[in-house]
Protein: N-acetyltransferase domain-containing protein
Organism: Candidatus Lokiarchaeum ossiferum
Amino acid sequence: MFNSIKEELDSYWIYRIMIDKKYQRKGLGVIALKKLIDLMTTLPECTRIAVGYQPKNVATHKFYSKMGFYDYRDRFGKEMAIILKI
């Protein structure tokens, strides 16, 4: 799930990428995220993609960091926000 208009932090946001637990750790999340980024970069003036996550979710932070997202110390409510600059 993602938005098709820019929102907070002058970014397009990914709201959810969900992979069933029995299919996790098989590379499907990486494939899904790459395809999603390819699709989102076709949106008007897409220069930033943001993802919010709970601060205690270290695995999510590592996953998105490995995919090129960076923590600029932005926060969105109680969530941390990390950004991929396009």
